[in-house]
UniProtKB/TrEMBL annotation:
Pfam families per the UniProt record, alphabetical: Guanylate_kin
First-listed, main subcellular location of the protein, grouped into a coarse class: cytoplasm
Family under the similarity heading: Belongs to the guanylate kinase family.
NCBIfam families recorded: guanyl_kin
EC number of the protein: 2.7.4.8
InterPro entries in UniProt: GK/Ca_channel_bsu, Guanylate_kin-like_dom, Guanylate_kinase, Guanylate_kinase_CS, P-loop_NTPase
Quaternary organization: Monomer. Interacts with RD3.
Domain Guanylate kinase-like: 4-186
Source species: Denticeps clupeoides (denticle herring)
Protein's name according to its UniProt entry: Guanylate kinase
């Protein structure tokens, strides 16, 4: 039996993916499961190993890639990120909607697999607003902020190409963006809720 369709959330760093995703997972407990990626970046205050990411060294990450443990991996802003096969299998084994938060390289690479997710891009209203949100978040050094803004320019260009995303949500007003995300996923949410009744 095939389970619910996974969901790929992408879009520039600072666009609001984690904010939207955390709210969705809280409002629909027992419906979604987060695919916990591996990364070589340092944990931020409050981030938990195994929950937000599996925080690993470059050596360990490369070992996993060589072992073909990952369905996709990419270099972003000077660090490695990747989705392991087991991170998805763990969620799918529970019949939950698997949510992946990956960059645009991840989107392109997942398209080459048989995962068949719904692709949603979260975009900021403008690059200026994105910069302000990233600065206000206070998680980045100036160098890492500049790298993220450069990646954001590329993301904003590539995401416009027709056929890359099923849906593009401009995260201007958070409530409105959340409602759009929720309605796009309602059919899958309903399936999981019906199956659990
Ligand atoms: N390709 C790929 N990208 C990932 C993965 N995990 C996270 N990312 C992306 O890496 C970028 C940086 O993530 P992060 O360091 O958590 O910063 P944040 O998005 O600004 O909170 C974001 O665009 C994420 O979507 C992954 O497993 N694969
Ligand atoms: N609609 C919004 N309006 C204002 N600030 C927002 C909005 N959405 C998210 N933010 C803030 O912007 C910052 C980046 O959001 P975050 O969810 O961390 O982005 P991402 O996961 O895409 O990198 C956070 O500090 C968050 O609180």
């Amino acid at each position: 039996m095939s389970g619910p369709r996974p969901v790929v959330l992408s879009g520039p760093s600072g666009a609001g993916k984690s904010t939207l995703l955390k709210r969705l997972m809280k409002d629909y407990e027992g419906v979604f499961g987060f695919s916990v990626s591996h990364t070589t970046r340092n944990p931020r205050p409050g981030e938990e190993d195994g929950k937000d990411y599996h925080f690993v060294t470059r050596e360990k990450m490369q070992e996993g890639i060589d072992n073909e443990d990952f369905i996709e991996n990419a270099e972003f802003s000077g660090n490695m990120y990747g989705t392991s096969k087991s991170s998805i299998e763990d969620v799918q084994a529970q019949n939950l909607i698997c949510i992946l938060d990956v960059d645009i390289q991840g989107v392109k690479n997942i398209k080459k697999t048989d995962l068949n997710p719904i692709y949603i891009s979260i975009q900021p209203p403008s690059l200026e607003i994105l910069e302000k949100r990233l600065r206000d978040r206070q998680t980045e050094t100036e160098e890492s902020l500049q790298k993220r803004l450069e990646a954001a320019r590329i993301d904003m260009e590539l995401s416009k190409e027709p056929g890359v995303f099923d849906l593009i949500i401009i995260n201007d007003d958070l409530e409105e963006a959340y409602e759009l995300l929720k309605s796009a996923l309602m059919e899958e949410i309903q399936k999981v809720q019906d199956a659990n009744e």
